[in-house]
Structure formats: C-alpha cells, structure tokens
Amino acid sequence: IGVQVANPDALVIDIAGDASILMNIQEMSTAIQYRLPVKIFILNNEYMGMVRQWQELLHGGRYSESYTESLPDFVKLAESYNAKGLRAKKIDELDDVIKEMIETDKTVIADIWVNKEENCFPMIQSGSAHNEMLLSKDQKQDKQSAEKGKILV
Questions:
Q1: Alpha-carbon Rg of the chain, whole angstroms?
Q2: DSSP 3-state of 112
Q3: What is the mean pLDDT of each run of 10 residues along the chain (153 residues)?
C-alpha cells in the first residue's frame, strides 16, 4: 500500500503466501478506501509455507500447526471488499490470470494454487550466515565448507 501511494502510476504487486496475507488482510479496507490498484498475488499451498518447510527440512517432517484447510475463499473475499478476485488452479490458467490481474485498474487478489509441498529457496537456517544458505531441498550443508565459501550440493 505504501509503495502504491508513493508511486501512484506504478504497477505494484505483493507476492505473498496464503498464511502471510491473512495476517494483514484487514489492509484490504485501506487499499479499497484509497482506490489503490494494488495486486495481491497469493501463492496458496494451504500451509504456513515457511513453517512447514522448516518442519520438513530441519525437524524430520514433524509437522505441527502449519496446515489449514479452513482458509477463506480468496476470490469471494476480494469481491466482498469490492475488489477483483481471480484464481488459477492449473498451470495453463496462470498466464490468463496474470494478464487480467495486470489489466485490472483496481485492487486485485489473485489466488494461485501451488503444490502443497513446494519449498521456497534460498533459505537461511536459524543461526546461519548468508554464505551458509540452502539453495535446494537436496543440498547437504557443511558449515566448515560454507565458512570457506564452498557449499556442498
């Protein structure tokens, strides 16, 4: 919202997960009140994605409180705010949804369904430095090599 106010003629797209957008969904009211054409592009995997990823990669797949099947219908939610709601459930729908999102001159929520187990990289583990980041799910990290600038893949 702040970026859009500061750059009224710019295309502003917020890329968010389904859980993160719910932490700030009340700001839809602000976007609508000030007629801001912000685009909210939700990567929806029905998880707190980063929490699930940490639980998978660093805690042996011991999942706790990271999945939710009680998400709102983001298209209906957008419409309830008098915004535009779009959805892509399949890859072949994605280009059309992105095109419509960009061409719409008002606030948009695009609900993009992604694989529930998809991870987000790079990832820096707690207590690690930027040169120790994980670049993929299959990467094995050796802190001594990382400290020398070499990450084992």
A1: 18
A2: strand
A3: 97 90 92 97 78 66 63 94 97 97 98 80 78 75 47 43
